[in-house]
Amino acid sequence: MTDFSRLGVAAIRDGVANGEFKAVEVAEALNTRVAAAKALNAFIVETPEMAVAAAQAVDADRAAGKPLGKMAGVPIGMKDLFCTEGVQTTAASHMLEGFVPTYESTVSANLWKAGAGMLGKLNLDQFAMGSSNETSYFGNVISPWRRNDGDNAALAPGGSSGGSSSAIAARLCPAATGTDTGGSIRQPAAFVGISGIKPTYGRCSRWGVVAFASSLDQAGPMARDVRDCAIMLEAMAGFDPKDSTSLDLPVPAWEAGLNSDLKGKRIGIPREYRLDGIDEDIAKMWDNGIAWLKDAGAEIVDISLPHTKYALPAYYIIAPAEASSNLARYDGVRFGLRDLPEGAGLQDMYAATRAAGFGEEVRRRIMIGTYVLSAGFYDAYYTQAQKVRALIARDFDNAWASCDLILAPTAPSAAFGLGEKNADPLSMYLNDVFAVPASLAGLPAMSVPGGLDKQGLPLGLQIIGKALDEQAVLNAGLAIEQRSGFTAEAGEWW
Amino acid sequence: MSVDKDTVNKIARLSRIAISDAEADKMVGELNGILAWVEQLGEVDVTGVEPMTAVISNKLRLRDDVVTDGDVRDKVLANAPAKEGSFFGVPKVIE
Fold first, then answer.
1. For strand A195-198 and strand A266-270, is the pairing parallel, antiparallel, or unpaired?
2. Domain A4-261 annotated CATH 3.90.1300.10
3. Per-residue b/e over A366-392, b at no fewer than 16 CB within 10 Å?
4. Nearest-CA distance from A4 to chain B in Å?
5. CA A278 to CA A435: how far, in whole Å?
6. How many CA atoms lie within 13 A of A266 on its CB side?
7. What's the pLDDT score for residue B57?
8. What pLDDT, in 10s, does the model give residues A228-257?
9. Chain A residues in contact with B56 (beta carbon < 8 A)
10. What is the pLDDT of residue B86?
11. Which of A262, A273, A251 has the alpha carbon at shortest distance from A470?
12. What topology is assigned to B5-43 in CATH?
């Protein structure tokens, strides 16, 4: 009997289309795995009946000889940042606990139209603010991975799309949606040994996605290989008149365009990413990545992105500034939590509601954002950060004169233990050092597994491409995947 | 620039987030740590650089000025924490 948990998106889609098995069999098998993996805390809400209903519809369409969608019969996890009609959507916050959208996000609607089904809503860092999934109101997500030293410490699955990464690595689902504001698809993918791509800003509609920092937020797929990412990105992307920054461009046939022959491609290695004191295993993996891309026919060139060190501080002004504005909507009046102390007026109700509904990290970021946007400080902080952001984007533009793609590590370390980086918010922020520059410039960027560190934990290689050139990013990812021989899996302890 | 407790309380007020005295004390250190770190942006020469307004150049579209949505009162009210009839309920704001 087929172990459906071992099949990826392409294998399930093809197996269903060819009649090797029924979509319902896959949905039921994965529903069972999801239900048995509570220890990972990857899901906030499970929706087994929806997975089965979508599968039945695909099976019926196939029986009737109707054409099947790009994701027909593939059950997926949906990050709980996407509004799903009739299914609680929380952004992992107390503020939105019990919020049941009356509409569907464009990205999730696109996936259902393509024949995918929903296994459930995946846990995340609260309002997508975090790099370890420790800020969720619904508890930490645990990575299925453990260090090989036998200490069994619970490890972070990365964040903010940590429910997505954990569920995919544990083979509860073949793929899941993620969102990436400053690395939230790539860093969790790297931490658990899977792939994930943040497309060019504007490829996937933001409509119906709980907003964090609108100029950075971008949805993308996470899956166990590059082909599966390409398939799912095709299903998610597309012009949406309901999002003012949606790109009015056709969706390329990324899957059909996959080609790991990189002859003629120049790969830039940014010297500023080789930080002093870079982890030895990370440096070694990066060197391996360079060798693999060379082997695939690419030419390696040294490049400079001189403003790299300013990307993180700029990000931690811009993202909180936008968050403070976006999260002003949570007022206890129209939806979400209300905390009305006895005898309180409207202003006190706002303040009490927001104190009770937002977690510590969210409150911290709203306050930083409010401060940097406040009278007298706006130019010194916010305008300066947006100017530096322009310089960071210009660095990439200059680099494209001598290269077509950039190769770098995804994160500066392997997964850390839960609680290890909590004491100081800054040390957590620094984990996004390699991910944030591409976010600030709106560029497509992908993480693929690059190997294991000394403790047996996965490390990720990041490929950054030119705007709209997801194809080249995916192709380089495929070239790495074909050479890295990465087959390691987390042991099934849960 | 650094913040003191009065400033933290003011930011909390502007943010409409109630904070306790102990939280304000803790926040002074945290915000100062983060602000001191982001201040390194001040050393970047930005002469002649326009602040970024869009990562990918994209024209804001215009649409026809027609009604394309609406008549969904019950949906709009469906998640209200308090409602009265077809209205959102709020504490009394006029004495």
1. unpaired
2. yes
3. bbbbbbbbbeeeeeebbebbbbbbbbb
4. 38
5. 15
6. 12
7. 82
8. 999 999 999 999 999 999 999 999 999 999
9. 200-202, 245, 247, 442, 467
10. 93
11. A251
12. Histone, subunit A (1.10.20)
The residue type at B76: V
Query: In the predicted model, what is the mean pLDDT of residues A454-482?
Result: 98
- Determine phi and psi for A448, rounding to 5 degrees: -130, 155
pLDDT in tens, A317-330: 999 999 999 999 99
Nearest to A102 among B17, B75, B93 (CB): B75
CB A239 within 8 A of CB A247: yes
Tell me whether residues B55 and A201 touch, CB distance under 8 A.
yes
Note the pLDDT tens digit of each residue in B39-90.
999 999 999 999 999 888 878 888 899 998 899 999 999 999 999 999 999 9
Catalytic one of A93, A160, A195, A260: A160
Q: Name the band, by pLDDT with cuts 50, 70 and 90, for residue A25.
A: very high
Q: Judge whether A143 counts as a catalytic residue.
A: no
Q: Which residues, at least 6 apart from A479, have a Cβ–Cβ distance to it below 8 Å?
A: A260, A261, A262, A292, A293, A296, A298
A294 is catalytic: no
